[in-house]
Amino acid sequence: MAFQRRFLSFFIVVILSSLIVSCEMSKLEEVVKLHDHHILVEETSENDFLQQAYPSYFGMVEDGKFKGLIKERTDILSLEKVGGAPTSVKMVNVKNFGAKGDGNDDTEAFEKAWEAACSSKGGAVMVVPEGNTYLLKPIRFSGPCKSKNVIVQILGTIKASDDQSDYKKDGRHWLRFDRVAGLVVEGGGTINGNGEIWWQNSCKINKDLPCKDAPTALTFYNCKNLVVKNLNIQDSQQIHLSFERCVNVQASNLSVTAPEKSPNTDGIHVTNTQNIQISNSVIGTGDDCISIVSGSQNVQATDITCGPGHGISIGSLGAKYSEAYVSGITVNRAKLIGTTNGARIKTWQGGSGTATDITFENIEMENVANPIIIDQNYCDQKNPCSKQEKAVQVKNVLYKSISGTSASQVAIKFDCSSTFPCQGIVLQDIDLKLQGKEGEQEEAKAVCSNVKVSNIGTVSPQCY
Length: 464
Ligand SMILES: *[C@@H]1O[C@H](CO)[C@@H](O)[C@H](O)[C@H]1NC(C)=O
Fold this sequence. Notes:
It is an enzyme of class 3 (hydrolase). Helices cover 11% and strands 47% of the residues. It has four helices and 30 strands. The chain has helices at residues 2-19, 53-65, 107-119, 196-200, and strands spanning 29-34, 74-79, 87-93, 102-105, 123-128, 133-136, 139-142, 149-154, 157-160, 173-178, 183-186, 190-192, 216-221, 224-234, 241-244, 247-257, 268-271, 274-284, 290-292, 297-306, 312-317, 323-337, 341-347, 352-368, 370-375, 393-406, 410-415, 422-434, 445-449, 451-460.
């Protein structure tokens, strides 16, 4: 903090002394040239990601110190590099595009603001101000952008329209970012999917209704070098946050919450995505805390707290005879509280492909119904699934330093395919006990089929 304050004062002096330079004022734009921006922007190559530099800088601007200097308008800060090309950053406040945050639809204003941010030549910051709730219909923030980096700073609340007819064109997405490179979404604000109406009409709640998809609250599709952090995402219509076909993603400090009884409200969903780190997040919803599905590679989930919900899942994989590949998945330092599963791998019969090189380590289970589970007979449909020969091959899975309590007697369940038995399954330092009930002396057990398990260190319970 002290450093930041000193840094800030220094920065104010720098700005004031350089303010004399050209302030091109137009109604919407104001240019401030900064001589010494080296303190602001780290030296980076053309393709490097400036996520470290811009957010903290604009964080300070947003702190209010500059509010008098820089009009609450579309501001351009020109960060001139000595001998280099200038990098300008445009401030785009949704308010200036007509967003009111008064309970009426603000979709159009957000669309216009996005267009301004995405088409700016340097970088851009699209600000959703604090203190208001902005009501939005489904909206697509499409790239590719002219801007090298777009920061979406959500300080206030964004709430979804709960008029289902608004979702006629695309019933699967509410907020969707498409093909944006170098995007940062942050700000400490809230994204509220307002999902109640969708839950009530889910076939899982009302068995007479047909099963239909509901929107994902926040989707990142085809995004490269993406940062999503410091956000509250709640009460989604279905999945809260989905990364699809993305490369290089950092998701951190997220709070994802929905009622335990809300159907299919996965917390974070990862599909066809490579190099993603999910860290320091608290997730409690009605479905999987994190679900990692086909095409995902090099996924790290670290310091995650889950519950309520269905736990951390790899899969489901191989549904409808599909081919699925996931590899390089590490879940490290997680706490699961009262979830129906802990560390789970689930595959449908009849699929093909592989799920390999998976590590679950340093995990604490508290009253988890199935703490460790591989389920190769997963079947989440109305009709029972018939027996199939084919299966997704599960291979090289390490469970290390996992302890705590199981809510059911079967603390470890390996239900592997008979035609493609699980390979390379290692249990190391496992200590799972049955959640204590007054007067009960039963012990937790492991139920294992079509699997050979290697035990390292102290493992309890064990497969026989
Ligand atoms: C995490 O995000 C919240 C807002 O959602 C913010 O107040 C807090 O400072 C963030 N923590 C860190 C370590 O960035």
